[in-house]
């Protein structure tokens, strides 16, 4: 079938460069303890780890005129075009360029955050808004009747892995296929598919810890052990089999999945997983 990912084969060589983008306001928290657990497990395997602790960095979350100092006074701000011009001219702000350099350095990127109101905290979304500049993470590649840019499996992050480490206060059952909050894979799809797969990352299944506000020491030890196991498998675990945009499964430029490629009864997000 066109667009199908080949059978997964690990191609990673040890050690890896791993960037963890951490978005929790309290370092002395369960999230902070899980971050330490992940760092320790990765470093034990010889990986090099860098952490962008967004709250500690006092990361500026809002994309606004301050991001484009060369924009003429009185000129209307069009974020995408201003971003493209600043990226091409090497005029992005220092904080944004530093994070882009970390992304280019990394073999694997981990976004770690608590699930707040069914998505990532605003500070992490603001990191994406500003760091994913036009010309860097989007707006790249040929746009024609054959391809529609380098995205969804292609792009500047192609060849790199990425995954989410997520905590939530709800029960696993609340996020099950019949759970009232909706399936966790559906809730995370806009992040996994739209923020990670879009610029080219190979996306690994997320690590999700549930009922974290009620974990006692024994339960935390179980979660920490599971996270360590996941970190040990970072280079070998099979990725989510998202369909690549330009490999034949989609009609271009409409970008609709061609009829007959989906599993019987599949709709919505499930259409884009082969």
TrEMBL record:
Q: Which InterPro entries match?
A: Flavodoxin_fold, Flavoprotein-like_sf, NAD(P)H_dehydrogenase_qn
Q: Where is the signal peptide?
A: none
Keyword terms, alphabetized = Oxidoreductase
A Gene Ontology cellular-component term: cytosol
Query: Which residue range or ranges hold the Flavodoxin-like fold domain?
Result: 16-227
What GO annotations for molecular function exist for this entry? NAD(P)H dehydrogenase (quinone) activity
Q: What is this protein called?
A: NAD(P)H dehydrogenase (Quinone)
The organism that produces this protein has a lineage beginning with: Bacteria, Pseudomonadati, Pseudomonadota, Alphaproteobacteria, Acetobacterales
């Amino acid at each position: 079938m066109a667009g199908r990912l080949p059978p997964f084969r690990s191609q990673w060589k040890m050690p890896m460069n791993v960037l963890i983008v951490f978005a929790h306001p309290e370092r002395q928290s369960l999230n902070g303890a899980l971050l330490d657990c992940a760092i320790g497990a990765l470093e034990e395997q010889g990986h090099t780890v860098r952490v962008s602790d967004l709250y500690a960095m006092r990361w500026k979350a809002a994309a606004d005129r301050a991001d484009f100092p060369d924009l003429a006074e009185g000129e209307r701000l069009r974020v995408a075009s201003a971003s493209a011009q600043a990226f091409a001219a090497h005029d992005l702000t220092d904080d944004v360029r530093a994070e882009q350099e970390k992304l280019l350095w990394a073999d694997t990127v981990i976004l770690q955050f608590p699930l707040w109101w069914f998505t990532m905290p605003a500070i992490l979304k603001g990191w994406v808004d500003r760091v994913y500049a036009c010309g860097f993470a989007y707006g790249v590649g040929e746009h024609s009747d054959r391809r529609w840019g380098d995205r969804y499996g292609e792009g500047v992050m192609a060849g790199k892995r990425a995954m989410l480490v997520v905590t939530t206060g709800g029960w696993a059952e609340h996020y099950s296929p019949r759970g009232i909050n909706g399936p966790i894979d559906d809730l995370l799809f806009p992040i996994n598919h739209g923020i990670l797969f879009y610029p080219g990352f190979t996306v690994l299944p997320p690590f999700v810890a549930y009922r974290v506000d009620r974990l006692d020491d024994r339960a935390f030890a179980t979660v920490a052990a599971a996270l360590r196991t996941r970190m040990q498998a970072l280079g070998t675990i099979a990725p989510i089999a998202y369909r690549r945009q330009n490999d034949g499964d989609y009609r271009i430029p409409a970008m609709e999945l061609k009829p007959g490629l989906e599993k019987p009864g599949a709709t919505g997000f499930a259409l884009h997983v082969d």
